[in-house]
Specification:
The chain is α/β, with parallel strands linked by helices. It folds into two domains: 116 residues, Response regulator (Rossmann fold), CATH 3.40.50; 61 residues, Winged helix-like DNA-binding domain superfamily/Winged helix DNA-binding domain (Arc Repressor Mutant, subunit A, Orthogonal Bundle), CATH 1.10.10. It has a five-stranded parallel β-sheet, sandwiched between helices. α1 packs across α5, α6 packs across α8 and α6 packs across α9. The longest helix is centred in the last third of the chain and has 15 residues.
Protein backbone atom coordinates (compact mmCIF):
# COMPACT_ATOMS: atom_id res chain seq x y z
CA UNK A 1 0.00 0.00 0.00
CA UNK A 2 1.40 3.40 -0.97
CA UNK A 3 2.32 5.78 1.85
CA UNK A 4 0.99 8.70 -0.18
CA UNK A 5 -1.79 7.41 -2.47
CA UNK A 6 -3.45 9.45 -5.16
CA UNK A 7 -2.60 12.34 -7.43
CA UNK A 8 -4.23 15.77 -7.40
CA UNK A 9 -5.13 15.51 -11.06
CA UNK A 10 -5.42 12.16 -12.84
CA UNK A 11 -3.46 11.84 -16.09
CA UNK A 12 -5.08 11.33 -19.47
CA UNK A 13 -5.42 7.84 -20.91
CA UNK A 14 -2.29 6.05 -19.60
CA UNK A 15 -2.11 3.95 -22.78
CA UNK A 16 -1.69 7.06 -24.94
CA UNK A 17 2.10 7.13 -24.80
CA UNK A 18 4.32 8.84 -27.32
CA UNK A 19 7.51 6.77 -27.73
CA UNK A 20 9.22 9.69 -29.47
CA UNK A 21 9.28 12.02 -26.46
CA UNK A 22 12.66 13.38 -25.43
CA UNK A 23 13.54 13.59 -21.74
CA UNK A 24 16.12 15.95 -20.30
CA UNK A 25 17.34 14.39 -17.04
CA UNK A 26 19.02 16.79 -14.61
CA UNK A 27 20.89 14.64 -12.11
CA UNK A 28 24.51 14.99 -11.03
CA UNK A 29 25.08 11.52 -9.59
CA UNK A 30 25.83 8.80 -12.18
CA UNK A 31 24.35 5.96 -10.14
CA UNK A 32 21.11 7.92 -9.65
CA UNK A 33 20.98 8.62 -13.40
CA UNK A 34 21.28 4.92 -14.09
CA UNK A 35 18.48 4.06 -11.67
CA UNK A 36 16.15 6.72 -13.04
CA UNK A 37 16.84 5.70 -16.64
CA UNK A 38 15.93 2.12 -15.74
CA UNK A 39 12.66 3.23 -14.15
CA UNK A 40 11.81 5.43 -17.14
CA UNK A 41 12.44 2.48 -19.45
CA UNK A 42 10.10 0.30 -17.39
CA UNK A 43 7.37 2.95 -17.47
CA UNK A 44 7.77 3.64 -21.21
CA UNK A 45 6.75 6.64 -23.26
CA UNK A 46 10.24 8.10 -23.74
CA UNK A 47 12.23 7.75 -26.93
CA UNK A 48 15.52 9.39 -25.97
CA UNK A 49 17.18 10.78 -22.86
CA UNK A 50 19.69 13.61 -22.62
CA UNK A 51 21.58 14.56 -19.49
CA UNK A 52 22.59 17.65 -17.52
CA UNK A 53 24.24 17.88 -14.12
CA UNK A 54 23.13 21.38 -13.14
CA UNK A 55 20.62 24.12 -13.86
CA UNK A 56 23.26 25.95 -15.89
CA UNK A 57 23.95 22.91 -18.06
CA UNK A 58 20.21 22.35 -18.51
CA UNK A 59 19.66 25.95 -19.59
CA UNK A 60 22.39 25.52 -22.20
CA UNK A 61 20.56 22.54 -23.68
CA UNK A 62 16.88 23.20 -23.30
CA UNK A 63 16.40 25.86 -26.00
CA UNK A 64 18.08 23.79 -28.72
CA UNK A 65 16.96 20.36 -27.53
CA UNK A 66 13.32 21.37 -26.92
CA UNK A 67 12.52 18.31 -24.78
CA UNK A 68 8.93 17.34 -24.12
CA UNK A 69 9.82 16.19 -20.62
CA UNK A 70 12.17 17.24 -17.85
CA UNK A 71 13.12 15.31 -14.74
CA UNK A 72 14.90 17.52 -12.22
CA UNK A 73 16.68 16.27 -9.11
CA UNK A 74 16.31 19.05 -6.54
CA UNK A 75 19.57 18.24 -4.80
CA UNK A 76 21.43 18.49 -8.11
CA UNK A 77 20.11 22.02 -8.62
CA UNK A 78 20.80 23.04 -5.00
CA UNK A 79 17.10 23.60 -4.31
CA UNK A 80 17.26 26.86 -6.29
CA UNK A 81 13.55 27.27 -6.99
CA UNK A 82 13.97 30.62 -8.73
CA UNK A 83 16.33 29.00 -11.20
CA UNK A 84 13.95 26.06 -11.51
CA UNK A 85 11.11 28.45 -12.38
CA UNK A 86 13.27 30.08 -15.05
CA UNK A 87 14.22 26.69 -16.52
CA UNK A 88 10.63 25.47 -16.68
CA UNK A 89 9.51 28.76 -18.20
CA UNK A 90 12.08 28.46 -20.97
CA UNK A 91 11.26 24.79 -21.50
CA UNK A 92 7.48 25.35 -21.69
CA UNK A 93 5.31 23.62 -22.75
CA UNK A 94 7.49 20.70 -21.63
CA UNK A 95 6.17 18.80 -18.62
CA UNK A 96 8.48 18.47 -15.62
CA UNK A 97 8.69 16.24 -12.59
CA UNK A 98 11.01 17.07 -9.69
CA UNK A 99 12.63 14.44 -7.51
CA UNK A 100 13.49 15.12 -3.87
CA UNK A 101 15.90 13.21 -1.61
CA UNK A 102 13.36 13.19 1.22
CA UNK A 103 9.63 13.86 1.33
CA UNK A 104 9.15 17.58 2.05
CA UNK A 105 5.75 19.30 1.65
CA UNK A 106 7.39 22.72 1.48
CA UNK A 107 9.59 21.77 -1.45
CA UNK A 108 6.68 20.00 -3.16
CA UNK A 109 4.65 23.21 -3.04
CA UNK A 110 7.59 25.35 -4.19
CA UNK A 111 8.15 22.97 -7.11
CA UNK A 112 4.48 23.14 -8.06
CA UNK A 113 4.54 26.94 -7.85
CA UNK A 114 7.64 26.96 -10.09
CA UNK A 115 5.65 25.14 -12.78
CA UNK A 116 6.42 21.47 -12.20
CA UNK A 117 3.79 18.91 -13.16
CA UNK A 118 4.79 16.38 -10.54
CA UNK A 119 6.74 15.66 -7.38
CA UNK A 120 8.38 12.40 -6.35
CA UNK A 121 10.79 11.39 -3.63
CA UNK A 122 13.57 8.84 -3.45
CA UNK A 123 11.77 7.68 -0.29
CA UNK A 124 8.82 6.49 -2.39
CA UNK A 125 8.23 2.81 -2.91
CA UNK A 126 8.94 1.79 -6.52
CA UNK A 127 5.25 1.46 -7.57
CA UNK A 128 4.52 4.99 -6.37
CA UNK A 129 7.63 6.41 -8.03
CA UNK A 130 6.63 4.75 -11.30
CA UNK A 131 3.09 6.10 -10.95
CA UNK A 132 4.48 9.61 -10.59
CA UNK A 133 6.67 9.17 -13.67
CA UNK A 134 3.86 7.70 -15.74
CA UNK A 135 1.40 10.43 -14.81
CA UNK A 136 3.75 13.19 -15.98
CA UNK A 137 5.01 11.33 -19.07
CA UNK A 138 1.46 10.96 -20.41
CA UNK A 139 0.58 14.58 -19.72
CA UNK A 140 -0.97 14.46 -16.26
CA UNK A 141 0.14 15.67 -12.85
CA UNK A 142 1.27 13.91 -9.70
CA UNK A 143 1.26 15.65 -6.33
CA UNK A 144 0.14 13.10 -3.69
CA UNK A 145 -2.52 14.51 -1.38
CA UNK A 146 -0.72 13.46 1.78
CA UNK A 147 2.23 15.61 0.69
CA UNK A 148 0.43 18.52 -0.94
CA UNK A 149 -3.25 18.59 0.09
CA UNK A 150 -5.76 20.80 -1.65
CA UNK A 151 -6.03 23.87 0.56
CA UNK A 152 -7.65 27.14 -0.41
CA UNK A 153 -6.01 30.21 1.03
CA UNK A 154 -3.18 28.40 2.77
CA UNK A 155 -1.76 30.74 5.40
CA UNK A 156 1.96 31.21 5.66
CA UNK A 157 2.76 30.73 9.35
CA UNK A 158 4.42 33.56 11.23
CA UNK A 159 7.88 32.23 12.14
CA UNK A 160 9.81 29.71 14.17
CA UNK A 161 10.73 32.36 16.74
CA UNK A 162 9.97 31.44 20.34
CA UNK A 163 10.43 27.69 19.92
CA UNK A 164 12.69 25.85 22.32
CA UNK A 165 15.80 24.04 21.10
CA UNK A 166 13.97 20.69 21.37
CA UNK A 167 10.94 22.03 19.50
CA UNK A 168 13.22 23.25 16.72
CA UNK A 169 14.73 19.77 16.50
CA UNK A 170 11.24 18.26 16.21
CA UNK A 171 10.30 20.83 13.56
CA UNK A 172 13.38 19.96 11.49
CA UNK A 173 12.42 16.28 11.63
CA UNK A 174 8.85 17.12 10.58
CA UNK A 175 10.19 19.10 7.62
CA UNK A 176 11.77 16.01 6.08
CA UNK A 177 8.55 14.02 6.39
CA UNK A 178 9.26 11.85 9.44
CA UNK A 179 6.41 10.32 11.41
CA UNK A 180 6.03 10.86 15.14
CA UNK A 181 7.57 7.45 15.82
CA UNK A 182 10.53 8.15 13.53
CA UNK A 183 11.07 11.53 15.21
CA UNK A 184 10.97 9.86 18.62
CA UNK A 185 13.59 7.32 17.56
CA UNK A 186 15.83 10.00 16.04
CA UNK A 187 15.72 12.23 19.12
CA UNK A 188 15.60 9.56 21.82
CA UNK A 189 12.21 10.56 23.21
CA UNK A 190 8.79 8.92 23.32
CA UNK A 191 6.10 9.32 20.61
CA UNK A 192 3.86 10.88 23.27
CA UNK A 193 6.47 13.55 23.95
CA UNK A 194 6.79 14.19 20.22
CA UNK A 195 3.03 14.68 20.03
CA UNK A 196 3.16 17.22 22.86
CA UNK A 197 6.01 19.10 21.14
CA UNK A 198 4.09 19.21 17.87
CA UNK A 199 1.01 20.55 19.65
CA UNK A 200 3.15 23.32 21.17
CA UNK A 201 4.80 24.07 17.82
CA UNK A 202 1.41 24.55 16.16
CA UNK A 203 0.22 26.84 18.96
CA UNK A 204 3.39 28.94 19.09
CA UNK A 205 3.71 29.43 15.32
CA UNK A 206 0.05 29.73 14.38
CA UNK A 207 0.28 26.76 12.02
CA UNK A 208 -2.94 24.76 11.65
CA UNK A 209 -1.34 21.43 10.76
CA UNK A 210 1.92 19.64 9.95
CA UNK A 211 1.92 20.96 6.38
CA UNK A 212 1.91 24.56 7.54
CA UNK A 213 4.56 23.73 10.14
CA UNK A 214 6.72 22.38 7.31
CA UNK A 215 6.31 25.70 5.54
CA UNK A 216 7.86 27.32 8.58
CA UNK A 217 10.80 24.95 8.40
CA UNK A 218 11.28 25.64 4.71
CA UNK A 219 11.23 29.39 5.18
CA UNK A 220 13.07 29.86 8.47
CA UNK A 221 15.17 26.73 8.95
CA UNK A 222 16.35 25.93 5.40
CA UNK A 223 20.09 26.45 6.11
CA UNK A 224 19.96 24.11 9.10
CA UNK A 225 17.92 21.49 7.23
CA UNK A 226 20.16 21.52 4.19
Amino acid sequence: MDRFPGALRPPPDPTARNPDKTLLLIEEKPICRMAIVQLVAEVGGVGSIRYATSIEAALDQVETLKPELLLVDLFSVNYEFGALRRLLSIAAPAAAIVVDDRVNPTFARLAKDAGASGYASKDFELPQFKSALQAVIVGGAYFPRDILPDQVGLRVPRSAAGLSARQLEVLKQMAVGKTNREIAEALGITPGTVKLHIHSILQLTGARNRTEAALIAGRFLAPAIG
